[in-house]
Amino acid sequence: LFDTMAKDAQEVKIPLVHKLAVGAVAGVIGTSIVFPIDVVKTRLQNQAPDAMGKLKYRGIFHCFKTIHAEEGFFSFYKGLGPNLAGVTPEKAIKLAANDFFREKLTDPVTGDLPIERQILAGGTAGFLQVSATNPMEIVKLRCQLQNMKPVADRLTPMQVVKNLGLRGLYKGVLVTWMRDVPYSIIFFPGYASLSKQFADDKGHTGLPQIIAAGAIAGASAAWACTPADCIKTRFQAEGANYTSIMDCYNKTVTNEGHKALFKGAVPRMTVTAPLFGIALVFFEMQKRYLQGVPLF
User: Fold this and answer.
1) Which of 83, 84, 103, 159 has its CB surrounded by the most CB atoms within 10 Å?
2) Sign (positive/negative) of CA torsion 120, 122, 123, 127?
């Protein structure tokens, strides 16, 4: 019976608008859960040595402890509102577009999807999502850094958006593409491959296996793309003194060495792994519900 239902599910095509809705819900849930770690990642990436050559945050746990002691618990959720406003279309586009293009690129006769087509589907999804990602992330980034400024100079999310303007919301879009397209090229084929390996003898992948596949693929892609994410964070920060993305890269490497490009790699992996693990679970559960197959 299960085999029959699984076969029928493969023939049921979920409309794109439903995929978008499913991706949006999955993204909101995942982002809300891991947001505090993302705040720590941003602080670690954006900090620079003081006049004495010392850094304010010595590591992940020290950063957590310092933020909590100096700014309070709710500082870990600074920028969550605008982030959720942006992550809804961003995750909707990313997850739905990949799923949509994988369906279109799958051989209708054999059901095969070669790796090069998986890469094309993932890369296209990553490219398209940046239309929503860049505005959302630059606002989130600047909101997360407000508590490092004097109280009188801190801005609300709406003031941040107003100061940026439409053009400012897309500042650094090139480096966002440089991060998100390779990320999706690594992540989606990796997740698909791991899901198949983790499936049981009936081809069914359980929720723990989905979380594991999403987490491993997400963490791997996050590590590989950390240098682009680090440059993006610094280039988009308020008051950043860089004339271009390449200028930001050159100054970072010259002043701090190549190891600086991997600042925040561990918290970024720690954010991405559960984020995509959780998001994919809810994405797959909603798809299974719409297809009428067992959720677990």
Assistant:
1) 83
2) positive
CA–CA distance, 19 with 266 (Å, rounded to integer): 31
Q: Which residue has the tokens 């602080």?
A: 43
Longest dimension (CA), the chain: 69
CB 173 within 8 A of CB 134: yes
Q: Which of 24, 30, 141, 42 lies closest to 90, judged by CA?
A: 24
Looking at residue 8, its pLDDT comes to 42
Hey, what amino acid is at 76?
F
Reported as a single tens digit per residue, the pLDDT across 51-70 is 788 888 988 899 999 999 99
* DSSP per position, 46-65: H----TTS--S--SHHHHHH
Q: How many CB atoms lie within 10 A of CB 83?
A: 25
pLDDT greater than 60 at residue 22: yes
DSSP state of 114: -
Helices 60-71, 265-291: crossing angle, 10 deg rounding: 90
Instruction: Give yes or no for a contact between 28 and 275, defined as CB atoms under 8 angstroms apart.
Output: no
Structure tokens at 185: 């090229």
- Report whether 135 contacts 169 (CB < 8 A): yes
Handedness of CA 140, 217, 186, 184 (dihedral sign): negative
User: 215-254 pLDDT, tens per residue?
Assistant: 899 999 999 999 999 999 899 888 888 999 999 999 999 9
